[in-house]
Amino acid sequence: MARTLRHRGPDKDGFYEDKGLTIGYTRLSIIDLETGDQPMANEDESVWLVHNGELYNYKPLRARLKEAGHRFRTQCDTEVYVHAYEEWGLDFLTRLDGMFALGLWDRPKRRLVLSRDPLGVKPVYYRVDAGGIVFASELKAFLSDPGAQLSLDPQALIDYMTFQNIYGSKSFIRGIHRLPPGHSLVADESGTRLVRFWELDGYTASVKSSEAAAEAYAGSLAESVSDQLMSDVPLGSHLSGGMDSSSVVLAASAHIEGLPVFTAFFDDPALDEMPYAQEVADAVGARMNEVKIDPHRIPSEFARMTWHLDEPKAGPGMIPAWFVAEVASRHVRVVLTGHGGDEMFGGYPAYLFPYYMGYLTGPRDGWGPKRGATSLGERLNQEGLKRTVGLPVYSAFRTDLGAFGHDSTFSARQVRLLVAQRHLGTARGHDPRTYLNEVRATCPSRAPLDRLMFLDAKTYLPSLLENEDRISMAFSLEARVPILGQRMVRLSTEIAPALRLRGGTLKFVPRMAMASRLPRDVISHRKVGFSVPLVRWLREDMSGLVDSAMSRGAVEAVGIFNPEPVDVLRTREVRSAKDAERVWTILRVQEWARQFLVQRGPT
Questions:
Q1: Which residues of the chain have pLDDT under 50?
Q2: Were 574 and a residue from 27, 68, 459, 579 both cysteine, which residue would form a disulfide, CB within 3.0 to 4.6 Å?
Q3: Mind listing the pLDDT tens digit for each residue in 441-482?
């Protein structure tokens, strides 16, 4: 298993064995390069730990633990975990500000604890059966057991085909689970149990002034970025040219002169944010490193992308992310990213519908184009008529988009036509919307915008973070997310819903906070993100890959889909974004199943 995960830690490995237990680790050295090896123990070696990630508040925690009498042997953040567990038991998890996945062994109590950070930046998979518990950072590690019976989880397949995501604790392989964010799996002689130690709450709407919100945002971001700059190896940042990554680069550049930044661009002016990224880099004195996406490389890289991504839950945005990580890994070992800004501070156009619904059904504080960061005319120019007006109207009629913020890729009827009956039979009646409704209902706030953003933070954001983790780690690169620091997340729920999208302006508070700090074009231009010209790529550069992976022979060999409807998709000309999305979905499942179920290894 450790050899399979060597890309996550190419520097060193380590193992610890006790009666009935073996834990292993592969290290990517970031802090305390000399003495930070794992597994790591406390003073009397009664507690052992393996850990992936970074603990950003380890210095104050370390000071407090030293005052309580604990003795430290290293300068590494990892050692704080074992002493914190000694001092506070399982409650130590509530004191952490960081991204982490950990496995902790309490030898006297014969207790194993697996934990994952609150928002799911770092992954943990596990399997519990009569033979015990097996856990790892990635799904592919479980393929190293030649005796393991691996089969598709059809409910995960239905989730992905419906919304390009996987929900709950299931994975694409039956019986292997992902630990939910903010949870621990505790196993001892009495059995196993899931324990939640964190929840997204605090919806107080205590910040109602735009000036106070903007000041709090700028201050919290600056502190979060400063905390996450800790590194004993070269550090840089992704820079897409959007609001979030630009704000992170601005804050980081206050501490690092000539900060290395990394971006990608296309031969498509409508999707090219390179001019905005360059403008930010020039303004803050960052060193730009760009990569032009060559679509001719995609078919040859697709198998490797699939292997490293673990599961087919990524949209085509994985392609530019892959090539950006590749170029970044040549220069640095740590990158800051802008992930989380859309989910925490209202950046998706789909949020306009619940925002307007909140106006109709609740307090109208913050309403009116003149009170927004821009006029209605400017918003139409930035976002276009379709997003500003058409999308909210469309959401009212498209149930999935209005309720869950995401439109379905395939309908339930189309899924039944595409998926082989032997898989559908064991997932009869499964509908991911049931789970999404259950999650949304747990939101402490009744405001429509809060509820949809809460749902995204609990279901969509973890998927994006898992994809970022797999892609960066494929190149032995650590990715950090300052916008998801503890202060930032707390602030996001304290800002009144009417203020987050005041006047229908997406990400109103970050725009206001950065208005005098970032170039105007960066503040006002339309959100692009990692959109790609997928229609053209599938019709041209990726057409051979599609024909090969979705041919009748390939479909029959994998055995997940019915060949006839897949053949219709394969041979029909890709004309629209929806056509492309559907072909992409089938293509991803086919290649994943070939590697993980049929071949049980990479190409």
A1: 366-382, 384-385, 387-388
A2: 579
A3: 999 999 999 999 999 999 999 999 999 999 999 999 999 999
pLDDT digits (tens, 9 = 90+) for 357-370: 886 665 555 444 34
CA distance linking residue 369 with residue 377, whole number of Å: 9
The strand pair at 334-336 and 235-238 is best described as parallel
How confident is the model over 226-268, as pLDDT tens digits? 999 999 899 999 999 999 999 999 999 999 999 999 999 888 7
d(CA 497, CA 488): 16
What is the 3 state secondary structure string of 544-589? HHHHHHCCHHHHHHHCCECHHHHHHHHHCCCCCHHHHHHHHHHHHH
Q: If we measure between CA atoms, which residue out of 262, 304, 261 comes closest to residue 284?
A: 261
Could you report the per-residue pLDDT of 48-60, keeping only the tens digit for each?
Answer: 999 999 999 999 9
* pLDDT value at residue 369: 38
Could you give the CA distance from residue 499 to residue 167 in angstroms, rounded to a whole number? 30
User: Which residues of 421-532 form beta strands (DSSP E)?
Assistant: 478-480
Determine the pLDDT at residue 359. 67
Report pTM: 0.93
**What single letter denotes the amino acid at residue 243?**
M
- What does each C-alpha distance from 128 to 122, 268, 524 come to in angstroms? 20, 48, 50
Distance CA 503, CA 366 (A): 7
Q: Residue 285: how many CB atoms within 10 A of its CB?
A: 11
* Residue 314 DSSP label: -
Largest CA distance in the chain: 70
What span, in angstroms and rounded, lies between the C-alpha atoms of 34 and 55?
18
Please check whether residue 163 is in contact with residue 408, taking contact to mean a CB–CB distance below 8 angstroms. Answer: yes
Q: What is the Cα–Cα distance from 544 to 537, expressed in whole angstroms? A: 11
Distances (CA, A) of 154 to 13, 162, 418: 35, 12, 13
- Structural contact between residues 355 and 365, judged by C-beta atoms closer than 8 angstroms: no
Q: Which residues of 107-124 are buried (b: 16+ CB within 10 A; e: fewer)?
A: beeebbbbbbbbbbbbbb
Angle in degrees, 0-180, between the axes of helices 577-593 and 563-571, rounded to the nearest 10 = 130
Q: Are 117 and 181 in contact (CB under 8 A)?
A: yes
